[in-house]
């Protein structure tokens, strides 16, 4: 048996039809669009935008959103074709399994687990900061020690942990209830976005756009052209919404028709809103105001600047009631974002478990709620830990690099599927193939290159942990290959692991050479981690000969 063995399309379609034994089919096209909009709006607009503007792009953050959307459109078209062909839970994991085989599917599935975990953590951290702002408007103040991670001068981000726990418990009860709540919140959230744009447009100060593209500081990624592209890569995770839609394919009533609609329509709506919102955000207040710990809650800063300026230079908010109203809506809107991220994450793990690549317990469906409750419980713990102890910048960038990597594999998968299965039924076909998927690969890879090297180190370390699990558990319990692999398959996996070791060493050394960075812990950790895994993979490679 081979690690390149693909899961037959007929088997995937058969799994999709087993609604009685699997997950409930409750979602329609409007529900899927709401699911996508619920995931997209919030994560980018309300959280990481301020940080990316203040440290990378300045007012040109609007260009960054356009660049991100450009790559996202290509990937979205590829996702739409796959989701219409393969209506099974698992997103890019499932698509990769059908086109590139089990080993690549494992890689992308493991990447998606990280992507959704850190995305949910990022949004919950931002939710925590907005909660502090909202309560502060009523004279209630929470000590920063319980609002920040230890790396930001705090002890634990307690509100972020609590919201993750609550949303996980909601998911355990079932997607019907989750989708209904999400639909209500999305309507409220979109309304608030439109109000913010309409009201803020009146108080845009042209001087805040000068310079529109701040001059590069001399450091790669800090303003200038490199800053715009780095910002595009950082905020890219905000477009994860349509990816989350595809993970719900097995729970859609008519996936072949509804999935492409849900993916593309939610992407189109949110791209327009992103650009308009970012334009207003950086127009009513100077981008430098978003630096610091409050940068994760930029809307609160912008709303305070919506009003006439007096002769003393002080701004009097024109609509004082609007501040708390918007903060309240953002808090509610974030709930749906966290919910969708947690749902997408658990469904990917669900699919991997059904294939034997993860313990069977994670694909067990609750007898009453018909949801993977144990799966939800596991990720409630994992995401809570991320939210409690990891800084927002780190989890945000990790989400972006994981998302970009997933999109690249989906685009490649369309090319392979067109060649291997040209006559397979498709209710939606990606136009202009091979141009669209190739452009998707190039644009996403281009943005990945501009992300900080410490983000690459964390991604490589996570992927190496995944190699360990596949080598010592997944290959032994694979249902498709019945646990029987050729020696050459073990050699390929071990050899790929050694390649990851080399990549980790190179990236760690290049990162360490920057005199402005204090990365001794990350540097030595990387070297020790690489040395241990070099021995593990070398032993496995030798054993397979």
From TrEMBL:
Keywords: Membrane, Transmembrane, Transmembrane helix, Transport. One of its GO terms (cellular component) is membrane. InterPro entries: AA/rel_permease1. The keyword Cell inner membrane does not apply. One of its GO terms (molecular function) is amino acid transmembrane transporter activity. Its main location: membrane. It is found in: Membrane. It comes from Flavobacterium kingsejongi. This is Amino acid permease. It comes from the Bacteria. The lineage of its organism: Bacteria, Pseudomonadati, Bacteroidota, Flavobacteriia, Flavobacteriales. It holds the Pfam family AA_permease_2. The chain crosses the membrane at residues 31-54, 60-82, 154-172, 179-203, 223-242, 263-285, 321-344, 377-395, 401-418, 430-450, 456-473, 485-509, 521-539. It is a multi-pass membrane protein.
């Amino acid at each position: 048996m081979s690690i390149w063995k693909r899961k037959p399309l007929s088997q995937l379609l058969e799994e999709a039809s087993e609604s009685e034994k699997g997950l409930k089919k409750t979602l329609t096209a409007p529900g899927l669009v709401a699911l996508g909009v619920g995931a997209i709006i919030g994560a980018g607009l309300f959280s990481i935008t301020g940080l990316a503007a203040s440290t990378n792009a300045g007012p040109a953050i609007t260009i960054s959103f356009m660049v991100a959307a450009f790559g996202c459109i290509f990937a979205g078209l590829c996702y739409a074709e796959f989701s219409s062909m393969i209506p099974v839970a698992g997103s890019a994991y499932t698509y990769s399994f059908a086109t590139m085989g089990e080993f690549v599917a494992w890689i992308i599935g493991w990447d998606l687990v990280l992507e959704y975990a850190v995305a949910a953590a990022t949004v919950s951290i931002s939710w925590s900061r907005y909660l502090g702002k909202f309560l502060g408007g009523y004279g209630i103040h929470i000590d920063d020690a319980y609002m920040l991670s230890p790396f930001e001068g705090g002890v634990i981000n307690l509100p972020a942990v609590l919201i993750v726990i609550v949303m996980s418990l909601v998911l355990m009860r079932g997607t019907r209830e989750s989708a209904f709540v999400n639909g209500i919140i999305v309507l409220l959230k979109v309304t608030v976005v439109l109000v913010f744009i309409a009201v803020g447009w009146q108080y845009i100060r042209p001087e805040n756009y000068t310079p529109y593209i701040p001059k590069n500081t001399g450091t790669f990624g800090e303003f200038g052209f490199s800053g715009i592209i780095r910002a595009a890569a950082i905020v890219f995770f905000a477009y994860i919404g349509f990816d989350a839609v595809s993970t719900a394919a097995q729970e859609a009533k008519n996936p072949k028709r509804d999935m492409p609609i849900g993916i593309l329509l939610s992407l189109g709506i949110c791209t327009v809103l992103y650009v308009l919102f970012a334009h207003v955000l950086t127009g009513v207040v100077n981008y430098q105001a978003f630096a610091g710990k409050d940068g994760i809650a930029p809307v609160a800063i912008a709303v305070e600047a919506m009003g006439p300026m007096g002769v003393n230079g002080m701004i009097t908010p024109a609509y004082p009631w609007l501040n708390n109203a918007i903060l309240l809506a953002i808090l509610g809107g974030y709930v749906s974002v966290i919910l969708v991220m947690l749902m997408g994450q658990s469904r990917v793990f669900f699919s991997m478990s059904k294939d034997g690549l993860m313990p069977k317990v994670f694909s067990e469906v609750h007898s009453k709620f018909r949801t993977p409750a144990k799966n939800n419980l596991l990720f409630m713990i994992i995401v809570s830990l991320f939210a409690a102890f990891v800084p927002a910048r780190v989890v945000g960038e990790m989400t972006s690099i994981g998302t970009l990597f997933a999109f690249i594999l989906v685009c490649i998968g369309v090319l392979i599927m067109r060649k291997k299965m040209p006559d397979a039924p498709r209710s939606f076909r990606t136009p202009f193939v091979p141009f669209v998927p190739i452009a998707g690969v190039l644009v996403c890879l281009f943005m990945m290159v501009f992300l900080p090297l410490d983000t690459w180190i964390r991604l490589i370390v996570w992927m190496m942990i995944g190699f360990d699990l596949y080598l010592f558990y997944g290959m032994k319990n694979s249902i498709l290959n019945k646990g029987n692999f050729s020696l050459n398959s073990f050699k390929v996996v071990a050899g790929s692991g050694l390649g990851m070791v080399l990549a980790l060493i190179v990236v760690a050394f290049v990162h360490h050479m920057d005199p402005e960075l204090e990365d001794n812990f990350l540097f030595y950790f990387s070297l020790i981690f690489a040395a241990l895994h070099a021995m593990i993979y070398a032993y496995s490679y030798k054993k397979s000969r």
